[in-house]
Structure formats: C-alpha cells, structure tokens
Amino acid sequence: MADSPSLSRHSVWCPHVTVACVVADGDRFLMVEEEVGGRVAYNQPAGHLDDKESLVTAAVRETLEETGWTVALEHLVSVNQWRSTEHGDGVVRFTFAARALSHDPTRPLDDGIRRALWLTRSEIAALGERLRSPLVLMSIDAWLAGQRYPLDLLHSLLDEDRFP
C-alpha cells in the first residue's frame, strides 16, 4: 500500500524521529534543563533527526548543541515509540549510550536550554512530572539494567556517515 501511486507523499503518516543519549559518569547522568511550552523540563540531551542526517550523527550533534559535551557513542540502548503529550504526535526515539570525551563550557547552548547538569538516578526520579517524557527514566533504567545493542545494528546509506 505504501508504494501505491495513488498515495501522495503527504498522505503517509510520518512520526517525529528523535535521538537521545544516556551519558553516565559514575552514578551521575548528563541531563539538560530546558524551557518547553512555558515550563521547565528535564531531559537527556535529545532532539530531532535532520533530513539527510544519520541517527549516529544526530545523537552526537544534539548532545554537543545542548550540553557543550563532545561524546562518543558506544551502544544503542533502546528504540521507543510513543505519543507525545506536548504536541500529540507520534514519536520514534532512538536512545544511545555515550561516553563523554570533552567539554566546552564556553559553547552557547541551543535556544531553550537553560543548562546542562549531572544528576543521579534518584535525583532524576525525584523530578517526577518535570521530566520531559516517561522515556527519560525508562532509558536510564534500561541502561542500568545492562540493555545495550551494538551500533552496527544500525545501517546508514548516507554518504556522510557509513559504518565500517
């Protein structure tokens, strides 16, 4: 049905594709405090996949833009589908485990990002309704439970990012 010539490109449902990174340092996790829809919310470094961008490139880019941290992706943690309570649209989120490499404290952060901070799992859980989505704690818990998949599970045919 998706290949039917009678279906226009605009009649096919397309979810928001997002990426996020669980970045751990001991018992602390890299988080962002951001303003979303007139409220302060907490999330992992995360954002939308851009056109012609691989998932891997997007995850590294979003983490740098939102936190000033350069990271190296190590694993895929999860792929989650849900319906956003903010805008009501479907979202498919790819969450990666990443290792922090370096930090540029002078780098300006994305619009809406108030600051990057390191919090423990219990501090993150205590934020409750201030978490951007239920995927924040689910991703951390999946990582803590040892859920990790090799990055070569993902394949990019884009010229900008090919796996060895």
From TrEMBL:
Enzyme Commission number: 3.6.1.-
Domain of life: Bacteria
Quaternary structure and interacting proteins, as annotated: Monomer.
Stored Pfam families: NUDIX
SUPFAM superfamilies: Nudix
One MF annotation (Gene Ontology) recorded for this entry: nucleoside diphosphate phosphatase activity
Keyword tRNA processing: no
Protein name: Phosphatase NudJ
Cofactor(s) demanded: Mg(2+)
Enzyme class: hydrolase
PANTHER family: NUDIX HYDROLASE 23, PHOSPHATASE NUDJ
Residue span, Nudix hydrolase domain: 14-144
Family per similarity comment: Belongs to the Nudix hydrolase family. NudJ subfamily.
Keywords: Hydrolase, Magnesium
